[in-house]
């Protein structure tokens, strides 16, 4: 009888998939130790992982490495732990577990329950962060070189000096190559600013955007602002890109406080700042431009 994992591979059972290639599949554990707990399997059913031929075992771990990078980028953690138990399902599999504490890897811990909507959000976020295989990455670099040159420009704080803040580093990775589509396309650029001395006023926001102090500022909720870019059938027409916007949205909501979208000006070019507070009190997020005529 086929294992439950083989039935997932065959499409007979659903799964929250995060990555797949010709020989491997990764999906969220439906009885996780922590949010983001992911299983990596070979599509070929083999009970004991160390019965895999050397080449297949190596390929499985290389695939798991890519998935682990996606898990680590999408789910806040200190490390992505790795475990092979092999007693639950007679189909070789690797556990990838985002850890904040060593105890997160204790399989004697009670399993947690995660709502379906949250599982879908996590799967999309991780999928959006799994890097391409080496050959695919080289091709993508060649075709998107111009975009990378734009988005890798170091963001600056309010005094113009570059910052190496961890939040900014993560935001650069999440926004790299993303374009916001309105009546035209504009890149998303990660930004970080020193915390304002007092309340974040409209005049301060205008100053951050390099606009006159009297510039009109309109606030929007983040989910509403990104709604057309996070929808699988939205303006991007590309589920993988939609997943990247979902990952960005989830990171902003989880890692920053009081995230807000600020629209500055009345068109046709509207400057947009999406900002929240980091643990250190800095403002961080991204900026882009809308075209509205």
UniProtKB/TrEMBL annotation:
Location of the HIT domain: 4-107
Motif (Histidine triad motif): 91-95
InterPro entries: Histidine_triad_HIT, HIT-like, HIT-like_sf, NucleaseA_inhib-like, NucleaseA_inhib-like_sf
Region ranges (Disordered): 137-164
GO molecular function: catalytic activity
Pfam family, one: HIT
Annotated Low complexity bias: 153-164
GO annotation terms (biological process): nucleotide metabolic process
SUPFAM superfamilies according to UniProt: HIT-like, Nuclease A inhibitor (NuiA)
Catalytic machinery residues: 93 (tele-amp-histidine intermediate)
Protein name: HIT domain-containing protein
Species this protein is from: Hymenobacter lutimineralis
High-level lineage: Bacteria, Pseudomonadati, Bacteroidota, Cytophagia, Cytophagales
């Amino acid at each position: 009888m086929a294992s439950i994992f083989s039935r997932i591979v065959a499409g007979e059972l659903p799964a929250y998939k995060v990555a797949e290639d010709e020989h491997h599949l990764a999906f969220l554990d439906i009885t996780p130790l922590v949010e983001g707990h992911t299983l990596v399997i070979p599509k070929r059913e083999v009970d004991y992982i160390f019965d895999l031929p050397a080449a297949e075992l190596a390929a499985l771990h290389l695939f798991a490495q890519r998935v682990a990078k996606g898990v680590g980028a999408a789910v806040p953690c200190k490390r992505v732990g790795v475990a092979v138990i092999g007693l639950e399902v007679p189909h070789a599999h690797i556990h990838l577990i985002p850890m904040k504490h060593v105890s997160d890897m204790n399989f004697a811990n009670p399993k947690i329950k995660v709502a379906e909507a949250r599982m879908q959000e996590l799967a999309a976020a991780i999928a959006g962060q799994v890097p391409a295989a080496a050959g695919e990455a080289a091709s993508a670099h060649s075709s998107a070189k111009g975009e990378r040159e734009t988005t890798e420009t170091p963001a600056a704080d309010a005094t113009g000096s570059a910052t190496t803040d961890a939040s900014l580093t993560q935001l650069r990775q999440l926004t790299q190559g993303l374009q916001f589509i309105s009546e035209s396309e504009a890149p998303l650029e990660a930004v970080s600013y020193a915390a304002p001395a007092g309340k974040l006023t409209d005049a301060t926001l205008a100053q951050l955007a390099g606009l006159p102090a009297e510039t009109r500022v309109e606030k929007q909720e983040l989910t509403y602002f990104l709604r057309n870019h996070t929808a699988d059938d939205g303006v991007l027409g590309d589920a993988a890109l939609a997943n990247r916007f979902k990952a960005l949205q989830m990171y902003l909501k989880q890692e920053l406080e009081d995230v807000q979208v600020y629209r500055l000006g009345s068109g046709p070019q509207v400057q947009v700042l999406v900002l929240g507070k980091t643990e250190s009190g800095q403002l961080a997020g991204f900026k882009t431009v809308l075209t509205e005529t």
